[in-house]
Structures are given as C-alpha cells and as structure tokens.
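Hi again,

Forgot to attach this to my earlier email, sorry! This is the prediction with adenosine-5'-diphosphate bound. I've pasted everything inline since the attachment limit keeps bouncing my files.
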Amino acid sequence: MTTTEQQQIQFTKSFVQKTLEGAEGGHDWFHIHRVYNNALLISKSENVSAFIVSLGALLHDIADSKFNNGDESIGPQKAREFLFGINVDSVVIEHVIKIIENVSFKGGNEAQKFTSPELAVVQDADRLDALGAIGIARTFNYGGFKNRKLFDPSIKPDLNMDKEAYKASTAPTINHFYEKLLLLKDRMNTKTGKRIATDRHRYMETFLDQFYAEWDGKK
Ligand code: ADP
Ligand code: NI
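Structure tokens for the complex follow:
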C-alpha cells in the first residue's frame, strides 16, 4: 500500500469510530475492528487488494439499514461522500460501494448481484463475527435491543423467509441461530473463512445443547 493509501485508511478508521459512537453493541466500532482484523487475516491467503478490502471492511456497516428504517441507500451514500472527500480513486470507491451493498445476509435466499474476491473476503470476515462466542453475544444483544424473547418453544424457526420477511421478523433470538447463524458455515467463500467458521459453528452447537438442557432443567 502507498503512504497515501495508508493515510486514507487512518482517516477512514477515525471517521467510522466517530460515526458509530452510541451504536448497538453488536454493530459498534469494536464489531468493525474485529471484521477488519478478520479480513486482513483472510487476505493473507487470497489474491486481493488489501486497500479495497480494508475500506470495505471499515465501511460495511457505516449506516446499516436495520437501524435506518430499512433504508439501504444511506450507507453507500455516506461511504461514497466520505471516500470522495478524502480523494480516493473513483474506481476504488465504486468497488467499495458494491461491497457495502452486497455484504449482508438478509435471509440468505436472495441472489447476490455482484461478486469479487475483495467482497468474498469482507463477507467472510463479517460472517465470522456472527459466529462463535462473539456471535452468540451479539445475537442476544440485538435480541435485547429489539425486546425479543430469548426462546419460545411454540415459535418455530422459518427457513423460507424472503428479504422483507427476514427483516420484519420478531421471532425469539434462539430462532436466529437456525435462520442464519448455523447456515453460515456452508456459505463461506474462502479457505481460511471456512476453517475458522467450522470451529465457531461447533461452539454454537455446544451452546445450544447446554441451553436446551438448562431450559428443561436437566443440567
Ligand atoms: P444481516 O443478518 O441482515 O446480514 P447483520 O449481518 O448486520 O445483518 O447481522 C449481524 C448480527 O446482528 C447477526 O449475526 C446477529 O448477531 C444480529 N442480528 C441480526 N438480526 C438478528 C435477529 N433477527 N435476531 C437476533 N440477532 C440478529
Ligand atoms: Ni457487520
């Protein structure tokens, strides 16, 4: 990376940290920082532009539609304005915007419109942070933020939600494991992503076994 690019990354870190002050605990600066680190780790075994991966990871949740009345255009717009303001090359900007627009899971039943090696890395990095101990913590934090039940045995997971139904769901937090988290392991794009996801997946299965045993007073 050139010195200018390194400076642009530093500006971006400060911008994201400031913008996400007060964000929900699972989508705050620390989430971004973990995704950024995951992305750099995965990049080591991939043939990608570290600059584009870094900007994509840092800006991927700059204005998540979940926290903006479902509006999916605010994040890309904010990112574009910011990157333009710090003189990032326009071809790079457009690639980063595509990453932001396509990184999210949204029920997993929508066809992804854009692919690139850099998107593949950022997507895996973001998905890893949805798994394992951190994934469990984030999921219950989000459920609490939305005033969801922890679990309700009478409400079954729904695996056939389209994007709108997925976004509008008010189901108990445990259902999110079946509707998203446990599906991610088989959707990882990269070798490193798959390896780490497999470990984190196992950890979540152990958690669920223990959860149900305690729920039934068996442990
Ligand atoms: P999406 O699932 O739309 O791609 P994110 O990737 O931003 O959204 O989701 C990040 C994390 O937020 C999830 O991995 C999970 O921890 C939490 N989360 C999102 N939606 C839900 C939900 N319906 N119930 C519980 N947690 C959720
Ligand atoms: Ni994210």
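The chain is about 60% helix and 0% strand. The pocket of adenosine-5'-diphosphate (ligand 1) is lined by residues 26, 64, 104-106, 130, 135, 138-139, 142-143, 169, 173, 176, 180 (CB under 6 Å).

That should be everything now.

G.
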